[in-house]
Amino acid sequence: MNIGRAKEIAESAEVHNVTYEGLPVIIQHVDEQTKTARIYSKQNPEYEQNVPILNLIEEE
Q: What's the pLDDT tens digit per position in 9-60?
């Protein structure tokens, strides 16, 4: 995924199908400087992590 698309998803009110390492996630915030995104798992919303944006996949 690219930074621009990650920002669009993070700012959107709609639900998007995004995965990280095969798990469905929600993007909370995008850091353009470090090219990372703050995400949390839909299954475990209390576990947040920063991951490289390139590792996020938007499912069709």
A: 999 988 899 999 999 999 999 999 999 999 999 899 899 999 999 999 999 8
Indicate the pTM of the whole model.
Answer: 0.89
Residue 57 has a pLDDT of 97
Distances in Å between the Cα of 19 and the Cα atoms of 26, 54 are: 8, 11
Pick the closest to residue 26 from 59, 48, 1 (CA basis). Answer: 48
35 sits in the region (left: phi over 0; alpha: psi -120 to 50; else beta) called left
Exposed, middle or buried by CB within 10 Å (0-12, 13-18, 19+), for 9? buried
CA 43 to chain centre: 14
Kindly tell me the sign of the dihedral angle through the C-alpha atoms of 21, 16, 37, 39.
Answer: negative
